[in-house]
Amino acid sequence: MKPWFVYILKCKDGTYYTGITWNLKKRIAEHNNGIRTAIQISRRPAKLVHWEKFKTRIEAAKREKEIKGWRREKKENLFKSL
Fold first, then answer.
1. Which CB contacts under 8 angstroms, 24+ apart, belong to 41-46?
2. pLDDT tens per residue, range 37-79
């Protein structure tokens, strides 16, 4: 069984993008190359600032939803504290 990842990217414009994937390296490259991404060209490139590993897609999706509900400051505290 492949692990799943929740990730947070910091975009060029300073915004954060949170997503899930089973292939973190490939997904970040897709974002930065404009392949299957919601990140507009004006927000690229995006830099990985945080990731978490999960056993299942369901666990990762729950965590993604939780993080997406957070304010900016709480997201920043998450990856600054590590």
1. 42/12, 42/13, 43/11, 43/12, 43/13, 43/15, 43/17, 44/11, 44/12, 45/12, 46/9, 46/10, 46/11, 46/12, 46/17
2. 777 777 888 899 999 999 999 999 999 999 999 999 999 999 8
